[in-house]
Design brief:
This protein is of the alpha/beta class. The protein has seven helices and twelve strands. Helix 3 (110-119) packs parallel to helix 4 and helix 6 packs antiparallel against helix 7.
């Protein structure tokens, strides 16, 4: 019962002054000592749900429940750009998705959306279909024309009466749509589905790149090992004839032998890469960091 959670501020104030208007002694000894029947005409405040939250509230104060929505740890930190021409819609969707642990950015209109995407690429775009100026269709078409932005999944926000425009949205590259007025549970489900699909796509691409990289490394190692064996073989011959070679020359031969051993070690480690780690070699260019990369069991 809500009446036992906490006494009202008014009742607490009166109690502090030693006053208890309307308070009657309990009918029997079974009643708790702090029992106070409600005054005539009293009705408990209604339990309501905030528009921006699924948490029940009483007089604006949230009631903590065990079934509150939990953020998805796999999607934490992913960014959703919400594009609409109505600030109220932006605020509503921002509140719903932020509760799920997503990073939400908003853009008021199509022009602002394109500027935001070019500044920092989001993981998913929620795009209003019908907007004045630059429409959602035009924004989507502009995104698909730019190779660096074309892979961003776009989910349209659309009214039920816009069925013809929905078909056009899929034609220009949308992956899904959410109807207005937005239902939080539907919005959350569809956004999370597309974000998970985006993560799977990235992981698939990463696996393909890794497979190609490892194949190239094996081929490179084979091509390097052949001449390297010739170098080390020649060094062995020279060492066997060291009696007729100056000490300075022998010292240089040892330097060559050491460098050959280093090359062989690098080739072996590259051939055993399991999880390569990358570091920046130059602006826009990455290289494999062998010291940080994980090698498979054959290296041990």
């Amino acid at each position: 019962m809500l009446m036992h959670h906490q006494p009202s501020h008014a009742a607490a104030s009166q109690a502090g002054r030693g006053e208890s208007p309307g308070r009657e002694p309990p009918a029997s000894g079974d009643e708790p000592l702090d029992y106070a029947p409600p005054a005539r005409g009293f009705s408990p405040p209604p339990v309501v749900h905030s528009r921006l939250s699924a948490t029940p509230q009483v007089d604006g104060d949230p009631i903590v429940t065990n079934d509150a929505p939990q953020a998805d740890p796999d999607l934490g930190g992913l960014t959703v750009l919400v594009v609409d021409d109505t600030p109220e819609s932006l605020d509503l969707i921002d509140a719903i998705l932020s509760e799920e642990g997503l990073e939400v950015r908003t853009a008021l209109g199509g022009v602002a959306a394109m500027a935001s995407v070019r500044e920092r690429r989001p993981d998913l775009i929620l795009l209003d279909l019908m907007m004045p100026g630059m429409s959602g269709i035009e924004v989507c078409e502009a995104l698909k024309r730019e190779p660096e932005l074309a892979r961003i999944p776009v989910v349209f926000l659309t009214a039920m009466r816009e069925s013809e425009q929905e078909l056009e949205a899929f034609r220009v590259g949308a992956v899904d749509y959410v109807t207005k007025p937005v239902k939080p549970e539907i919005l959350i489900a569809r956004v999370k589905t597309q974000l998970r699909l985006e993560l799977l796509r990235r992981e698939s691409e990463r696996s393909a790149r890794l497979a190609g990289l490892l194949a190239a490394v094996v081929s490179l190692g084979h091509e390097i090992n052949n001449p390297l064996q010739g170098i080390t073989g020649a060094l062995d011959v020279l060492r066997a004839r060291s009696s007729g070679i100056d000490d300075d020359v022998l010292a240089e031969l040892e330097v060559v032998a050491e460098q050959a051993r280093r090359i062989r070690d690098v080739v072996r480690r590259m051939a055993h890469l399991a999880e390569p780690e990358f570091e920046e070699y130059a602006p826009g260019v990455s290289m494999v960091d062998l010291d940080s990369s994980q090698l498979d069991e054959r290296e041990e």
